[in-house]
Amino acid sequence: MSKNFKEKFAFTILALITMCVIIPALFIFSYIIYNGIGTISLEFIFSAPRRGMTEGGIFPAIVGTMSLILGTIVFALPLGVGTAIYLVEYAKKNLLTKLISLAILNLAGVPSVVYGLFGLGLFVLLLGFGSSILSGALTLSCLILPIIIKSSEAAIKSVPNIYREASLALGATKWQTIYKVVLPTAMPGIITGAILGIGRAAGETAAILLTVAAFFLPRLPNSIMDQVMVLSYHLYIISSQVPGMPDAIKNGTALVLLGVVGIFFFVATVVRIRYKLANRE
Amino acid sequence: MLKITVSDLNLHYEDFHALKNISLNIEDKKVTALIGPSGCGKSTFLRTINRMNDLIDDVKIEGLVMLEDQDIYNKDVDVAALRRRVGMVFQKPNPFPKSIYENVAYGPRRYGIKAKNQLDEIVERSLKKAAIWEEVKDRLNKSALSLSGGQQQRLCIARALAMEPEVLLMDEPTASLDPIATGRIEELISQLKKDYAIIIVTHSMQQAARISDKTAFFLLGEIVETGKTKEVFTTPKDKRTEDYITGRFG
Amino acid sequence: MGDTEKAIYSKTTISHRKDLTRSSRFGEFLIEKTIFSIGITAILILGLIFYYLVSTGLNVFATVSISEFFTTTGWFPVSSNAKYGTVPLVVGSLMVTMGAILISVPIGIGSAIYISEVAPAKARTVLKVIIEFLSAVPSVVLGFLGIVVLSNWVRITLSIPTGFTAFTGAILVSLMALPTIISISDDAIAAVPKDYRDASLALGATKWETIRYVLVPAASSGITAAVMLGVGRAIGETMAVLMVTGNAAQIPDTMFTSVRTMTATIAAEMGDTVRNDTHYFALFAIGSMLLFMTTVINTIADYVVTRGKKEGR
Q: Nearest-CA residue of chain C relative to A214?
């Protein structure tokens, strides 16, 4: 029976190892929720910071984050889905396609602070957009582009070929087939990827540090050329750059940021699970 | 001599009653063929004999399966030990992505045999028994995936034989092979039955007629008819067997 | 009445073109070209990133010698006698990365095995969702927790003067590398054909033996790639490291002193530089180094996976 004992022993060790990830993860969620929930109020969410940010709310930062991710998705979604369509439906098996795949893979691995440098150099300075929502959104779209491409590619690939053949056999052109048959079928997967990308953008700090984020700017933006406060950057400065910040504000900001990211994650997970279930029927 | 006795075996998969009151005797040193249309339960039945169905959740098994004098579903049975006595060859050749040598040595190694000379001996003997030794003896360290489909399947047979089983379960072992490779496997089966009890699931009635001594006809989870192959094929007792054998239903 | 019917009928009739030669489909042509140009934007962006970072970064060598930049150990960019030795920053990055990898590789591979092979189906779904959400936690949130919880814990448990150390950073970064390592290893193990599992079990191997001698070796290229991508993730991590490693640009003796990584240097100092001065160029040069490191790691990881796939089948 030593074989079976060995197996039990090994499985117990593996379970303990898994707990080394799960427990810190659960600790992170519960710590943030437990400590932050007391701060959350309508006033905290809907008012501007006062007295050097030691009082008041974080409304400008929430609006800043929202406008940033809106701008990001406007650029990244068409580019990402377009690239995925190209790769699955049009690209031939050649060197160029291989290079595109390699580029996407490497874009996914570029550190976010490098995106920040790139955005600073190209969008803020060279193109003269300044530190603005536009610069930040463009930088973030480069950053989440690989996420959107990958998930859209997987979604489009998973559309069965019989659908394409059926459409083409009825005399539809290639683009009509893609637009009317392939994309609608792939839509849940594409949406999931887009939402995950947005979630990533909402929590990103290093890339916007140099391209859009304002230290303290208690008013709302008027145009995409404005600088804004951003939740993630706000959490960074109040927790490590400004001495004497009240804990309540730090904890509340952390919870709002995690909440925003969590909502996107939750929606994406629900869409994905429902889509999987629907597909299984 | 009886090797395996199955009585009143029922298998439920979730709400699906997959095997119904199966009773069957498997004789040693004979080939027993299981025939029947797809989804009739013959592969499922085969997998109850080495308890491979244990791997699927929500499977409930009732009834008695005896390997000689032991109830294999007794809760004290060590499944690994059972599977060493009851070898299995699968529908699609499934060598591990390892060398030819390591594929055959895999079972014995798990059994605790470590000495190189013992393993060498087992590998050579098993490959010879599976009639593939001559083809691979100069490239034992090459990847098993470099072999042709037919060779891979004989390697899988050698891998099963290395454990010196008493029973060999074969689940449509020639389904993915061309006619020539199929012929070689059938020839091999006729050789092997001198030493083993062999149970083979097959879609091909000609194959069953060519190589088996006994045949059991499965339909919708039941055994409709069982007997000497010659008799089942020439004078079937049941109308449904006759219809199937003469190709009257799909 | 009859007339209207006729009219409706004629409207819905499909008229075939008898001539089957291709008419010019300008719309389709335009779409194809548009999709193509979108398709190559990824190359364009990566190319621009490389070009922009490297061409800007190279300017640093107009005032700083190559040997000073790569081999000296003093990083004092804002002192009146400015020094630009990047060795302490590189060492800082490597220390945090190594520490994170030492923690996250065994835990990551072990958890991936547990989740894909051992855990019951329902637990598997829950564990996967938790780990995916962990990967979604913004690094600034982890950095925040690093400041308020982890650094205190490190300082008190190890009774050292400061909790802002390379070790603290390594723990946080390992939490970020773990989801990457787990999910890619999990995919690799799940992709091992079921046939192998069946064959091994049918030979009388236990589940654990099957995992150890068949599944993990068969998934090894995927697992290797997972580890490499984890390394890439760890080197590039910025915010959490910036917030908890203490930011002392020194060559540390142990994991338990403050360090400053390449990423943290860029994030912390870029705001204070003047466009096109030496400091500005130096930070772009550090960015280029990071870019080269991660590109090499990712390309090798991709190569390992593709080669593994070819050998696998």
A: C271
